[in-house]
Amino acid sequence: MYRFLLSRQWLILTLVALLLIPTMIRLGFWQMDRYYERDARNQLVAKALKAEPVPVQRLTSPGGKITTGLRYRTVTAVGEFDTDRQVVVRRRVNASEEVGFHVLTPLVLTDGKVLLVNRGWIPADGPTQASFPTVPAPPSGRVTVTGRLMPDETTEASGIKNLKGLPDRQIMLIDSKRESRRLGAPVLGGYVAQTAPEPRGDSPQQIGSPGEENAPLNYAYALQWWLLALGVPIGWVVLVRRELRDRAAAAATAAAAEEKAPAEPDPAAV
């Protein structure tokens, strides 16, 4: 009755089903790992954004590294902007996906150290980004800056290549160690994405708050993979039962046809 399962077609179908089940289960667990990772990052970001502002010197120092737990922490700093030595960061987009620059201005603190402040996005003066753009001036004199603490940028984390031979006062990545060498001054590790004071005339456009990663989507994907894994053996059984019904129906039809066929004459009776 089940000998058809030994046919080449059914052996291949059964083998594929046996391979799909553990593969789909594994993909479900991979999506769950992604869910836990994203959920943990969301919690860290939410905790950092809700934390009370603290002076930046409490969380970083010259040559220091901004850890995952410190990222997005709100910090304050008091000093004066050094616009003569500010640079722009190439190939950055705003909320409308327009390509332009981020303005990186050194803030000379009251103790002589330097904090890199990303004041926000400005458009490029031309399509080639070959010249230094027109940069709106920050407040003059002593100012209190508030912003989100960010780690130094790397090619590995951002996917942005650190190109050489760029136009004057343009950079690809924000790196406090490299900026320390350029400025010849002790620069605090990481940088700050400025949130206050707000720029005059909405320019530069300040960088928006980090969005929440869609962790529940990975959870839903995991359930889908596991339901598909459950559906494979169910589907295999359904196909087997359908094959049995088809074979039984074909056998019944053949038997009925044989009964209705006229009897052949007996040669001995002629």
TrEMBL record:
Cellular component terms per the entry's GO annotation: plasma membrane
Compartments in which it is found: Cell membrane; Membrane
Pfam families per UniProt: SURF1
Keywords: Cell membrane, Membrane, Transmembrane, Transmembrane helix
Keyword Transmembrane helix: yes
Main location group: membrane
InterPro entries per the UniProt record, alphabetical: Surf1/Shy1, Surf1/Surf4
Membrane topology according to the record: Multi-pass membrane protein
The keyword Transmembrane helix belongs to this UniProt entry's keyword annotation: yes
Stretches the record annotates as Disordered: 192-211, 251-270
Family the UniProt entry places it in: Belongs to the SURF1 family.
Name assigned to this protein: SURF1-like protein
Species whose genome carries this gene: Streptomyces zinciresistens K42
Lineage: Bacteria, Bacillati, Actinomycetota, Actinomycetes, Kitasatosporales
